[in-house]
Structures are given as structure tokens and as C-alpha cells.
Amino acid sequence: MNNKKWYGFNMIWLFSMGDRKEVSPSEIVINEKELDFIADMGCNFIRVPTDYRFWTHNFDYENRDEAMLKRLDACVDAVVSRGMHCSLNVHRAPGYCINGAELEKHNLWKDAVAQDAFVSLWKFLAERYASYSAGQLSFDLLNEPPNIGQYGMTRGIHEKLMRRTAAAIRSVTKDRPIILDGLCGGNVAMPELADLGAIHSTRGYQPMSVTHYQADWCPAAQTGKAPVYPGTEWDGKIWNRNTLLEHYAPWKALSDKGVSVHVGEFGCYDKTDHKTAMNWFNDLFSVYRELGWGFSLWNFTGEFGIIGHNRPGTIWESIKGFKVDRELYDLLKEYMR
Known about the structure:
Structural class: alpha/beta
CATH superfamily: Glycosidases
Number of domains: 1
CATH topology: TIM Barrel
Strand content: 15-25%
Shape: globular
């Protein structure tokens, strides 16, 4: 299987319910101008992370809200209609999310009811979107499984669940592309699933002392001083381009054996200064080009995006009605070629 040369963004229309108890379908607004801008950039990929609670209420897993599902349909259609590939991801699944797993009633790694609901959801989505071609739509099964041992997750439990889910999808659509996020928040490769015929999705957030500086949801990344790159210390290493290559060595080993690898998420929080961030982005993109991997920035608008962030030292330029981080925009376009 060839590496997927998919380039684009994560769009967070249905990313998280947060602490809301109810959301109206009318609140899910797709910014068509943003998608037009992205397509005009030359992008060919949009990842759509979703929270199952938008269409499932009170943990009643099999009773799905059709009005909200129609908004999900609209998200997929908006991407595909522009000639871009849509990767539909379950970011919060019955029994697990990397952000706030304690909000779930069940545990995806321990409870059969959650595992059955997970498989059932994906079979339902496979049936709902069976008319889309493999070139138009892929299924990214679960965003960023936890650290091994966390919440009771083991490699064996994860492997069994992913194989079972893939089989359910393929019973409906044999050639539907399936994407598996790496373990430990997307960072750890999964050679035990190399034979499944799936695309393996890694992450681009290392070193987190650079990419998550002052991010309040990531206290481990707070070192007490502004990061530098190259040369920052994180996880017992001094980070530079060679360290990035070392980090991705297990993923390269999979790629060398014919497993398709893609970077489903990457980015840098906007409290890191622009020069440091761009030094890191330049190395990261050059590594991805060397390895032959496509990538998807988290995200388009906001603290990690190419518009709407507050990164110190950024040069802004108006492009097609958007105030854009010109240097990051140009770098993305350069490495999509």
C-alpha cells in the first residue's frame, strides 16, 4: 500500500459537545468560504473529528438523532463536493475520549456494551455512506487511543476491537479505506495491525514543550520557560531534525514494509513565538517529505490554525478575504507539492 499523499486540515464542526447537554442541528455551521479557500490552496483532504454525543443522547447508543446525523451528512457532502477526500473520525467514542474519558458511562477497553456500541456505530456509518467511493471517504476509527495500561487498554484489547470493527465495515463496503490512529495519543506505532490493510495515522506534536507551550490542558508540557527550537529538551532528549526522525523510526519501519502512513494531526499552539514555531514547522515538513507522508494540520481557524491565532511575531496578509499567517500558508503550499 502506498503512503497517502493527502494534504489538508482538520475541520472541527462536530469535534466536541464540551459540557453542553444539548445542541441544536442549526448550531452546526459549515463555513463554505473556508472550504473554498482550502480547496483553492490545492488541498485534497479534510479530516472531520466527531463526538458521538451530538447524535446519541444519555448513552442510548442505538437510538440516534436523525436531524443531527443530517448535519453530519452535510459535513461530508461539503468536503466531497469540492473534490477533496473526507476522513470521518470518531473523536469521542462510546466509552472513550482522550479529552475527558471520565465523562463516559462505560469504558471502551473494559465494557462489552461500549465495544458493541463502537462496532455498531461504525457499521451504521458504513451503511449510511456506502454510496461514497473509496477515493471520496475514509473512516478513521478512533482518535488517539490512550497510553498502554491507561483505562485498562492493552495492545491486545485494542487490536481485537480494531479488527472486529474493520470486519464490520468491510462486511458493508469491502474497499472502504480504514485509518487507525497510533496508540498513546497517536504517537506509538502498531506493527501488530500491519496486516489489516489499514492506513496508520501518526501525530506531529513532538516535542510538546514547543507545540503545547502554555496549553492549560497539557500541564506536562510546561517547563517554566519559553521554548527554543532546535535545542529544546523534552522527554529526556534535545530536539532537532534528527530527533524528529528518530521519533518516527517505528512508523518508518511500518512504511518500509508497505503499510500506508499518514499524519492525521499536527500543529503548534500559538503561545510559542513565531520564529521558534517556524523553525519547528520547517524541520517537520522536511521530515514528512523525506518519509513520503501526507499531513493534516490541526486546524484551519484558531490557536493552531493558519488564521485566527495570536502567535507572537506573525506576519499577516489578506488572502481571498482571510487574514492569513503568510509564512505558514506558504510553507504548507510548498510541502504539498
